[in-house]
Amino acid sequence: MNTLAEAPPKEPSEKDIITGLQEQVSASRLSLFLQCRLKFFFRYVLRLKKPKTPALHLGNSVHSVLKEWNKARWLLKPLTLKEAYESYQKAWTDENEGKVVWEPGEENDDKTTGWRLVDTYLRESHVPAMVKPEAVEVPVEVDLVNHGLPRLIGVLDLVQQRQVIDYKTSATTPNPEKVAHSHEIQTTSYAILYRHNTGNKEEGIQLHHLVKLKNPKVVITRLPSMSQQQETRLYRQMEAYLTGLQHEQFVPSPGMHCSSCEFFNECRKH
Ligand code: SF4
């Protein structure tokens, strides 16, 4: 009998997890670490699970149908609006999307809101539908060991005409300058990933916000290609991430963002 084969998989220790986090990083992990190291610790080191929020479920469902729509364009078999709607329905009910605790009536309202966002986006043709995308939902990575940094990983929602496009759902209309600033870690990461994986410089980066208003609207923020200063700034931020992990500096950073923190109770007791 092979007793080794029957042994349950060993849970990684906190040390192992921290070591793994030092080896590779994504834009969202880095952003969270710089926003609040204690929140990062709860989510990525302790791996505390929280129920998915309705807003996240809606955003994932919208994202899923846009991915299908772009994939179909990549295959040169564009979806009809009816097929897009069916894809949205499936995404919404997909068991793998996880459990959400809904208030009475909330799910139907959110489901309608999500579809209206997709419908608005597709009808307004914010990307040239007949131009074949270069990439759709593609996982990419770059080894930054030469810079003394971890591997950078990410998933590009859409690349078309050398524009890196990222989808977001939002409850409020974004301000272009604030959006450019608050998403800089993500947009700079995508530019680095794009350049390393294609050998080309991106023409620009676009953030497509689908805004959940009574009358849904789409706001597109067009950013220029990454500057040298932005690239350097990201590398410095990654250095701070590495140092913080090496010294296990998981300190709290209380502020306005705490109002939406899922670990608020854990933080108060910490
Ligand atoms: S409540 Fe605020 S300080 Fe505490 S973990 Fe969350 S974001 Fe950090």
Report on this structure.
By secondary structure, this protein is an alpha/beta fold. The protein has a domain of 181 residues: Alpha-Beta Complex (Lambda Exonuclease, Chain A). The chain has eleven helices and six strands. Strands 1, 2, 3, 4, 5 and 6 form a six-stranded mixed β-sheet that branches. Helix 5 runs parallel beside helix 7. The chain is globular, with a radius of gyration of 20 Å. 26% of the residues are buried. The model has no long low-confidence stretch (mean pLDDT 93). The site of iron/sulfur cluster has 12 residues, from helix 4 and helix 11.
How much is the average pLDDT?
Answer: 93
Largest sheet: 6 strands, mixed
Helix tally equals: 11
How many beta-strand elements? Answer: 6
CATH class of the domain at 54-234: Alpha Beta
Percent of residues in β-strands: 15-25%
Point out poorly predicted stretches: none
CATH architecture of the domain at 54-234: Alpha-Beta Complex
Which small molecules are bound? iron/sulfur cluster
Output the helix-strand order. HHEHHHHHEEEHHEEHH
Helix/sheet category? alpha/beta
Quaternary state, please? single chain
Please report the distance between the alpha carbons of the first and last residues: 46 Å
CATH topology of the domain at 54-234: Lambda Exonuclease, Chain A
The outline comes out as globular
- Backbone CA Rg: 20 Å
